[in-house]
Design a protein that fits this description.
This protein has helices at 2-28, 39-45, 49-75, 98-112, 143-162, and strands spanning 84-89, 92-97, 116-125, 130-138, 169-176. With 182 residues, the protein is of the alpha+beta class. It has a three-stranded mixed β-sheet. Strands 1-2 form a two-stranded antiparallel sheet.
Length: 182
C-alpha cells in the first residue's frame, strides 16, 4: 500500500516538474504566451492567515510522511516487508518468515561448527530458491572447508524445517578470531 502511495505522489511530482519545465522554456523563448497562476492559487494567497497556515501545515505533513516512507523503504533491510515462505498446499499452509529462518540457521551454524562465533544469517528469495548469506567470525582455518561445512548445515536445516533445497549459500568472514587455531 505504501509503495502505491509513493508511486502516485512520485508521478504527480514528475508531472508538476514537467509542466514547470515547459513553462520556463516557453518564457525563456520570449513567446507571447500568458502564464497566469490558476484561480485557486490566487485565492490561496489572498486567503486569511489561518487558511495559509493550514495549507502550509498540510503540505509540510505530506512532505514529512513521504520522506519517512522513503527512509523506511531504504533503511529497512527487509526487502520482503517481513514476508516469508509458504509451505504446504492451498488452504492448509504454514508461512515461515524469513526472519525465523535466519534465526534458525544462525543458531544451527553456531551450534554445529567449532571455531565459529558471532553468526548472522540473511535469507533472501532468489529466482526459484532461497539465497543464504552467513556473516560470521571464524578461527583461522581452511575457509573453503568452512564454506562447505556451513553449506551442509544450511542445507540440512532448511530441508528439515521446510523441505526446501537452498540455492546459493555465501559465507562472509567478518573477523578472524586470533589464537583459536583448529
Amino acid at each position: 500500500m505504501r509503495r502505491a502511495v509513493i508511486l502516485v505522489v512520485a508521478v504527480l511530482g514528475v508531472l508538476a516538474c514537467v509542466v514547470l519545465i515547459v513553462r520556463e522554456v516557453e518564457l525563456a523563448t520570449g513567446a507571447a504566451a500568458s502564464w497566469s497562476p490558476p484561480r485557486w492559487w490566487h485565492d490561496l494567497l489572498t486567503a486569511s492567515p489561518a487558511v495559509l497556515a493550514l495549507a502550509g501545515t498540510a503540505v509540510a505533513v505530506g512532505g514529512v510522511v513521504c520522506l519517512w516512507l522513503a527512509l523506511r523503504m531504504l533503511g529497512s533491510g527487509d526487502s520482503d516487508g517481513g514476508a516469508g515462505v509458504e509451505l504446504g498446499v492451498v488452504g492448509q499452509s504454514v508461512v515461515v518468515t524469513l526472519g525465523a529462518l535466519e534465526h534458525l540457521l544462525a543458531g544451527a551454524i553456531a551450534a554445529e561448527l567449532d571455531g565459529v562465533d558471532d553468526v548472522r544469517v540473511r535469507v533472501m528469495r532468489g529466482d526459484e530458491r532461497l539465497v543464504t548469506r552467513a556473516h560470521l567470525s571464524a578461527a583461522p582455518t581452511d575457509l573453503l572447508r568452512l564454506q562447505a561445512r556451513v553449506t551442509t548445515v544450511v542445507t540440512g536445516e532448511l530441508r528439515a524445517a521446510t523441505g526446501i533445497q537452498p540455492g546459493e549459500v555465501t559465507v562472509q568472514v567478518d573477523r578472524v578470531l586470533a589464537g583459536e587455531r583448529r
